[in-house]
Specification:
The chain has 752 residues and is of the alpha+beta class. It is 25% helix and 24% strand. The strands form seven sheets. A seven-stranded mixed β-sheet has the order 3-5-1-13-10-11-12. Strands 7, 8, 9, 14, 15 and 16 form a six-stranded mixed β-sheet that branches. It is globular. 56% of the residues are buried. It binds dioxothiomolybdenum(VI) ion. The site of dioxothiomolybdenum(VI) ion has 11 residues, from loops.
Length: 752
């Protein structure tokens, strides 16, 4: 089956929801029509640490149109704290008067209009008992702890001795900033009650997780909670976790007996959901003169909130990049007075691969060796930590194809040696990788005699082309045209799909879709072989196939699809569940309760499962102003089966652009005294714009992998971003001779 189905993938297909998106028919959660809605506005904390004292509500209540003001005093203890990314609490806003971070929700004003709610929210008088707050990694008062009990992180051999004995070494410290997702669609929530039933319209990367969590928080039967999120205007991880706002709005709507809609402001989005925390990392590399690594040590420090131990621990990936007999890794979490961080765009790999791939470049210069050749010398088909084979690993194919297209051979290795008029020219490269994750899922599929298929599964469309991926899979598996297939997603009334995170979505949804299609085919085939009047009578049902809107069998036997479906009773409907190999059956039961269980690329018992890639960038640094430009990027990726090259190209390119953005632009600035975010808007939070990205060229290296999963799908959601930051920093070094180990790289870092 795998080869056969693989052959059906790979045709560029425009997204099936494209027309709905450009005509406005596709709705975000806050666009759903409501009957007689009220509007909520959040009152958020102006201090980062302390307690909320008395709330003065008189001025707020006097604003015409105000309906209700929710505070700890009137709704406290009506909701449990939401589960955090690590299972611990995020903020416990309905339970306590404790302020854990700046911008924490402390009250919700509800009014007949948005404007009235906003005005009243600004008239809530809050008394604070202020305590000194710790803002970031080096602030006084932070609490530093080991992220995991010893032994959980990759360790092997004797790194201390190997590093001491190595003829060539690199030892350096790297730093990455806090960043915020900044999706265009804000973090809205709308709650509608109908008797005991609660419907929540909220952009979510996990429909069933949100449903289960809110039911648990409010003490409801999950059967009475429905979540709807058919289109998401950018998730980036921020919409994958459960936040405290949802329960507040549900309670507000219940008290009022009216739908309540919350559209928080963009700056509130910096503090009421998660973000990427700042990290510091120390890397030590020891190598023989031929470049072979003999010692690898990587230790990270990551910021988190006071109550949560959330961390990303990217050393699980970096320790697997290159062959090395001695490996030591560790991760520490630094608790400060900040909101709890969470998943953001390759959460672990993006910061940690910056350190590793920068250090590899430093090692190449120390060895006087081409950085591509250094990767080749240390390439391996065996996971250096587990000793398992990689299911497939085409890292060097990616380096070689991208290097050729980039014309890497034109590089003069001497830093500062390449110039074009007033511009210093630099070439840099770096590796990328991302674990292959896959999870349980369920789907309902129907096929009617007119050859129309409808599949429903509570998957998530964040702009990646997820509807189209599923439609392609069903069309090809049932022998239909793409226009014969309708896909429903983004609704918890549909069968569950795990969180759209960790780039698992394509692998997870296509496998359950194929399973449902195979069940449809089997039922059609079994009815056909039993029918004495059919051309397939007595044949082995396994030999019958659905293709080109027909049922076909041995010896060119064939009949129209309508006839074959009609024989089964006229309309076929199947319900399929798929549990990927290596996971227990309990993973499916857990999914119905909103629990996430992945088959993770680094945790498998049979193979180590990763996708790989390579970036090549040219930077130009102005010799006087030190302005940095990136005129061209060539990146190559090998990620198994590509279902839709059209949307895959866009996804890869988007990742590369985010990587460029994180190298040169993106950082959340934190005021050290108040532990507040300073640039919490799209005017001051810098991201790459079109003028920053003249040319991005993507190479999709063909890769057949029948060990990673039956369809050979690795997923491409996040790999594009990983390593781009290092490629740019390496190119900046090549252009200027200045090694910058802290992101983002801005011209002020290059002056003097
Ligand atoms: Mo992604 S950061 O795993 O939603």
């Amino acid at each position: 089956m795998p080869g056969e189905v693989n052959g059906l993938f790979g045709r560029p297909t425009p997204r099936i929801d494209g027309v709905a998106k450009v005509t406005g028919a596709a709705r975000y959660g806050s666009d759903e029509p409501l009957v007689n809605p009220a509007f909520a506005y959040l009152v958020t904390s102006a201090i980062a640490r302390g307690r909320v004292g008395a709330l003065g509500l008189d001025r707020a209540k006097a604003v015409p149109g105000v309906l209700d003001i929710l505070t700890g005093a009137n709704v406290g203890r009506q909701a449990k704290a939401p589960p955090g990314g690590d299972g611990g609490p995020t903020t416990t806003t309905l339970e306590t008067d404790r302020i854990w971070h700046d911008g924490q929700i402390i009250a919700v004003v509800v009014a007949d209009t948005y404007e009235a709610a906003r005005e009243a929210a600004n008239k809530v008088d809050v008394q604070y008992m202020d305590e000194p707050a710790s803002a970031t990694l080096d602030s006084p008062g932070v609490d530093i702890r080991s992220a995991k009990p010893d032994g959980r992180k990759p360790q092997k051999g004797d790194t201390v001795a190997a590093f001491a004995a190595a003829p060539v070494t690199v030892e350096a410290q790297y730093q990455t900033p806090a960043q915020h997702h900044n999706p265009i669609e804000l973090f809205t929530t709308t709650c509608v009650w109908d008797g005991p039933n609660l419907t929540i319209y909220e952009p979510s990367q996990f429909m069933w997780g949100l449903k289960a969590a809110v039911a648990e928080q409010l003490g409801l039967d999950p059967a009475n909670v429905r979540t709807i999120s058919r289109y998401i205007g950018g998730g980036f991880g921020a919409k994958g976790g459960i936040t405290s706002r949802t329960a507040w709005i549900a309670i507000a709507a219940r008290r009022l007996g009216r739908p309540v809609k919350l559209v928080p402001t963009r700056d509130q989005g910096f503090t009421i959901v998660s973000y990427r925390a700042e990290t510091r990392q120390r890397v030590k590399l020891g190598a023989a003169r031929d470049g072979k690594l003999t010692a690898f040590s990587h230790e990270g420090w990551e910021l988190t909130s006071r109550p949560s131990g959330y961390n990303v621990a990217g050393v699980d990936t970096t320790a697997r990049m290159y062959a090395c007999p001695n490996i030591a890794t560790a991760v520490n979490v630094v608790h400060a007075d900040r909101n709890t961080p969470g998943f953001m765009r390759a959460p672990a790999e993006m910061p940690y691969m910056f350190a590793l791939e920068s250090a590899m470049d430093e090692l190449a210069y120390a060895l006087n060796m081409d950085p591509v050749e250094l990767r080749r010398v240390n390439d391996t088909q065996t996971d250096p930590v587990s000793g398992l084979p990689f299911s497939s690993r085409s890292l060097m194919q990616c380096f070689d194809q991208a290097a050729t297209k980039f014309d890497w051979s034109a590089r003069n290795a001497q830093p500062g040696s390449m110039r074009d008029g007033e511009w210093l020219v630099g070439y840099g490269c770096a590796a990328s990788c991302y674990p292959t994750n896959i999870a349980p899922a369920a789907a309902r599929l129907s096929l009617t005699p007119d050859g129309k298929a409808t599949i429903g599964l509570a998957g998530h469309e964040m702009g990646t082309g997820a509807y189209t991926t599923v439609a392609i899979t069903v069309a090809h598996s049932l022998g239909l045209k793409i226009e014969d297939v309708t896909v429903h997603m983004g609704d918890s009334d549909l069968p569950p799909v795990t969180v759209a995170g960790g780039s698992n979505n394509a692998a997870t949804t296509t496998h359950v879709a194929v399973k449902a299609c195979e069940e449809v085919r089997r039922r059609i085939a079994e009815a056909a072989v039993k029918d004495e009047g059919s051309p397939f009578h007595g044949a082995d049902p396994a030999t019958l196939k659905l293709s080109e809107r027909a049922l076909t069998g041995p010896g060119n036997s064939s009949e129209p699809l309508a006839k074959a479906v009609g024989r089964t009773g006229g309309r076929l409907e199947v319900y399929a569940e798929n549990v990927p190999a290596g996971l227990p059956a309990a993973a499916m039961a857990g999914l119905y309760k909103g629990k996430v269980m992945f088959s993770r690329g680094e945790a498998r018992k049979d193979v180590s499962a990763y996708a790989f890639g390579a970036h090549f960038v040219e930077v130009r640094v102005h010799s006087r102003t030190r302005e940095v430009r990136v005129p061209r990027v060539v990146s190559a990726f090998a990620a198994g089966t590509i279902i839709n090259p059209l949307t895959a190209y866009s996804q890869y390119m988007g990742g590369v652009i985010w990587g460029l953005s994180s190298a040169l632009h993106e950082a959340t600035e934190i005021d050290a005294g108040s532990a507040r975010y300073v640039n919490d808007n799209l005017a001051d939070y810098m991201i790459a714009v079109n003028a920053d990205v003249p040319s991005v060229d993507i190479i999709m290296v063909p890769e057949h992998d029948d060990r990673v999963n039956p369809l050979g799908v690795k997923g491409i959601g996040e790999i594009g971003i990983v390593g781009m930051n290092a490629a740019i920093a390496n190119a900046v070094f090549h252009a200027t001779g200045k090694r910058l180990r802290e992101l983002p790289i801005r011209l002020e870092n290059l002056l003097a």
